[in-house]
Amino acid sequence: RSIKSLTTSPSSHILRRGYASEAAPDRKVAVLGAAGGIGQPLALLMKLNPLVSSLALYDIANTPGVAADVSHINTRSEVSGYSGEAELGKALEGADVVIIPAGVPRKPGMTRDDLFNINAGIVKGLCQAIAKYCPQALVNMISNPVNSTVPIAAEVFKKAGTYDPKRLFGVTTLDVVRAKTFYAGKAKVPVAEVNVPVVGGHAGITILPLFSQATPKANLSDAEITALTKRTQDGGTEVVEAKAGKGSATLSMAYAGAIFADACLKGLNGAPDVVECSYVQSTITELPFFASKVRLGKNGVEEVLGLGPLSDYEKEGLEKLKPQLQSSIEKGIKFANQ
Ligand code: NAI
């Protein structure tokens, strides 16, 4: 590229510089479950994010070590570690964004729903504290089963009188990250240029990548699209099996979580055109929660974008996922209200 194009085009490096400077507003990010497999690399990535001024790392144990370690990195944010429930309030106070990767991960042979019994209770407790200490924060829910933990969070916030659907997000970014990687490999296009919306939910067939809308365009066969769709839906299981009992995706999830949190921060700071897929309260289908492209802004969700044109294969996938997603939503709501 010529020097002229670098200095005069409104290219991303200029935008990035604008939002990356020390003049960015103060923003506190809290990570709940910060000592875990996702939590640690996510803490690292958030420490590298220049939009963060304060990074609070909370877990039921082991956070002092993680916080001391990460705090030595010479980037903008001040890091503090909080260990045990008595310190949860301090970790949350004043947070703009709360990221929740707390809870148990899958082992081979488990579905995300098998995690429900343990993680539902963990998420419920953490959300009660969020309602008390930082009801204005944007909540990024990573803990599985996301299809149910997001409805649980919504019910907890409703009970506390703090629910704002614009501020609650299920993090489905890893599905998008996987769809992009797998598509780029098959279509033989540069992975950095790839965009693929992924809609629905975050478990098995509820993960619906819309490869018909993928860019750059490629002429893939129906069989290739089917294989890509299945690989995206089973991406988590691929990692669970490869780790053979040592957990599920942590590094790629930390990356995806950091991308999504960064988008939330950019939105809060007023950056234009921040769009990511996320599982949110929605009216674009008959389901009360649904993942689709979402425009992020100063209040969180600015606009839930529609699905766009679907191929027949995607239309079929959409109809198939609805009953499963509906029942996961109902399970979450029932749990929260019992
Ligand atoms: P991990 O077991 O390595 O870490 C979980 C951490 O949560 C531990 O440090 C544990 O002490 C902590 N924790 C447990 N109860 C807590 C509580 N009440 N408050 C605060 N912290 C608590 O598990 P990993 O691999 O980090 O996974 C975490 C969650 O993320 C799992 O539910 C997993 O299924 C989910 N996940 C979600 C993905 C997504 O795409 N949304 C992708 C991959 C995993």
From TrEMBL:
Residues 28-170 form the Lactate/malate dehydrogenase N-terminal domain. Substrate binds at R106, R112, N144, R178. Pfam families: Ldh_1_C, Ldh_1_N. The active site is at H202 (proton acceptor). Transmembrane segments: none annotated. It catalyses: (S)-malate + NAD(+) = oxaloacetate + NADH + H(+). Gene3D superfamilies: Lactate dehydrogenase/glycoside hydrolase, family 4, C-terminal, NAD(P)-binding Rossmann-like Domain. Residues 172-335 form the Lactate/malate dehydrogenase C-terminal domain. The keyword Oxidoreductase applies. InterPro entries: L-lactate/malate_DH (IPR001557), Lactate/malate_DH_C (IPR022383), Lactate/malate_DH_N (IPR001236), Lactate_DH/Glyco_Ohase_4_C (IPR015955), Malate_DH_AS (IPR001252), Malate_DH_type1 (IPR010097), NAD(P)-bd_dom_sf (IPR036291). GO terms for biological process: malate metabolic process; tricarboxylic acid cycle. It is found in: Mitochondrion matrix. NAD(+) binds at G33, A34, A35, G36, G37, I38, G39, D59, N119, I142, S143, N144, M253. GO terms for cellular component: mitochondrial matrix. One of its GO terms (molecular function) is L-malate dehydrogenase (NAD+) activity. Its main location: mitochondrion. Keywords: Mitochondrion, NAD, Oxidoreductase, Transit peptide, Tricarboxylic acid cycle. The keyword Oxidoreductase applies. Belongs to the LDH/MDH superfamily. MDH type 1 family. PANTHER family: MALATE AND LACTATE DEHYDROGENASE, MALATE DEHYDROGENASE 1, MITOCHONDRIAL-RELATED. Homodimer. This is Malate dehydrogenase. It comes from Populus euphratica.
